[in-house]
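In the laboratory, one determines a bound structure by crystallizing the protein with its ligand and collecting diffraction data. In a computational setting the workflow is compressed into a single prediction: the sequence and the ligand go in, and a structural description comes out. We illustrate the idea with calcium ion.
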Amino acid sequence: MKPFKPLFYLLIFMMPLSSCLLFPPQRTGALRSFTTSFESEADFSGFYIVPQNYMNSSNHELTNSLVHSGTYSHHAWIYAANPPSDVFTNNNHRGYPTVQFNKTAQGPLITPCLITLWVYLTMNLQPRSGEDDWFSFATFTDDSSDSWNRTVLVNLNYQGHVHLMHVPFQGQQTHLFQTSSITFPMNQWVKLTIYLDLNPDRGYAKVWQDGQLVSHAEVRGAYWQLAQAHFGLYAPPQMTSGEVYNDDLVIVEVDNEPVF
Ligand SMILES: [Ca+2]
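The predicted complex, in structure-token form:
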């Protein structure tokens, strides 16, 4: 009879859970934040930046042609279509610097976090056979790996409504509240405010457009922390044109959601 090896079985049991934080990490010191007015690429030093002319169909830069404040903003644009995505390949358009708290000395932020971003969008979103057009303003993940396995997105659909994506779980779109009347205006600066709580038991997210609530949903399957994020340009492969400016991005740990 073989001896029972409790430690061995305990390790086997724990392995699938090792990538999750089962208990809330504790904040230490003052609430942390990340702020950029996109005045310098150095603000993203050490973070991954999508290469110029990614897939020979989109590009991005810091520009002084249109700003919300300061001298520069982040500008990204699409100039050609990509091949369709398939189950093995994601050919979405990309043009952005990432914010990788996992690569900083203090590690990921601990949610809840409040994110504010100014966006100036020029994009003609259309319904299509296959995949309708959409645009993504923001992507957040608790995952510190390059896989970005569990993401929460703030997207714009072709009807013009800003909405949370991958809520409550990855691949789902079930909201506690979703606007069907407030549309996102093109060709002007718009302030997006996002509250993100990744408590695995009672987490939720809210999005306000110029101070008006437009999307609210529970978030499950994420664990406490904000490890990485990106903004800028993220859109499906079939789109052939469109541009976006970002300015005055602030990501800050908070204790409660804001009151407008
Ligand atoms: Ca600026």
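Residues 6-14 form the longest helix (9 residues). Keep in mind that any predicted model is a hypothesis to be tested, not a measurement.
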